[in-house]
Design goal:
Layout: E1 3-6, E2 9-12, E3 17-23, E4 32-38, E5 45-51, E6 56-58, E7 66-71, E8 76-81, E9 90-97, E10 107-108, E11 112-117
Parallel strand pairs: 2-11
Antiparallel strand pairs: 1-3, 3-8, 4-5, 4-9, 5-6, 7-8, 9-10, 9-11
Length: about 120
C-alpha cells in the first residue's frame, strides 16, 4: 500500500485547509485510517482516525474544528481543518491500520506541511 498525502500549505490563523491521503489500493479493506502530526524533533501526536464502519476519533485539541472522512470510490481520506491556529503548525502524516493489533500503523504517507501564521 502506498499513501500519498497532499493539501498542506501556508494559511492565516482562522483559515481552512483540506488534506487528502490517496491510497494505491482500495480503502474498503482497511480497518482504519487516520492522521498523526509531528513537529521536527518532537513526539508525534494523534489527530484523528476513522474506521471502516465510519467510527471517528479526534484529539481533544482538534474536536469541533477538524473533520475526517473517506471517499471509497476515490480510495482517498480527507481531513478538513477549519479555524486553524498557529498551534496546528506541523507536518501531517496519514496512516493505515489493517487491524492486526500492532503498536504501530501498518502504512504511512510521506507527510504534508501545514503552517499557520498568526
Amino acid at each position: 500500500v502506498q499513501l500519498q498525502a497532499f493539501g498542506g500549505g501556508l494559511v492565516q490563523a482562522g483559515g481552512s485547509l483540506r488534506l487528502s491521503c490517496a491510497s494505491s489500493e482500495s480503502i474498503n479493506t482497511f480497518y482504519a485510517m487516520g492522521w498523526f502530526r509531528q513537529y521536527p524533533g518532537k513526539q508525534r501526536e494523534f489527530v484523528a482516525s476513522i474506521t471502516r464502519t465510519g467510527i471517528t476519533h479526534y484529539a481533544d485539541s482538534v474536536k469541533g474544528r477538524f473533520t475526517i472522512s473517506t471517499d471509497n470510490s476515490k480510495s482517498t481520506m480527507y481531513l478538513q481543518m477549519n479555524n486553524l491556529n498557529p498551534e496546528d503548525t506541523f507536518v501531517y502524516y496519514c496512516f493505515v491500520d489493517l487491524g492486526r493489533d500492532t503498536a504501530e500503523p501498518d502504512y504511512w504517507g510521506q507527510g504534508t506541511q501545514v503552517t499557520v501564521s498568526s
